Amino acid sequence: MASNLQNQEIDYRFTETPWGVWRTYVYENGRSFREYKTKARIWGMPLIHFTYGKCPETGKRVVAKGVLAVGSISMGVVAVGHLAIGIIA
Fold it and tell me: SS in 3 state form for the chain?
C-alpha cells in the first residue's frame, strides 16, 4: 500500500501477467487509474508502458515512458497520447 499527499492509504490492486504488471485503483466515484509496465526492457525503458487516469497518490497524470508509450502524456520511441513526444508520435 502507498500513501498519498494526505497520508491516506492507497490500496492498489496488482495483477501480474507473464509479460508485465497491472496496477489498478478505483475511486469511490467509479473513475479508475490503471498502469501497465512490461517486464522486458530495452535501453532501460519498459518495452510497453500504458497509463490511464489520475494517480491517487499525486492527483496528477503519470507520464508513460517506454519504447511504446501510451497515455495522456507519453514519451518514447513510439508515443501515443494527447501530449506525445517520440520518434513516432
Answer: CEECCCCCEECCEEEECCCEEEEEEECCCCCEEEEEEECCEECCEECEEEEECECCCCCCECCEEEEEEECCEEEEEEEECCEEEEEEC
For 44-79, b where at least 16 C-beta lie within 10 A, e where not — what string? ebbbbbbbbbbbbbeeebbbbbbbbbbbbbbbbebb
Task: Average pLDDT across each block of 10 residues of the chain; the chain has 89 residues. List them in order.
Answer: 62 94 92 95 94 92 96 96 94
Kindly state the cell numbers that stand for 71. Answer: 497515455
**9-14 long-range Cβ contacts below 8 angstroms, 24+ apart:** 10/56, 10/57
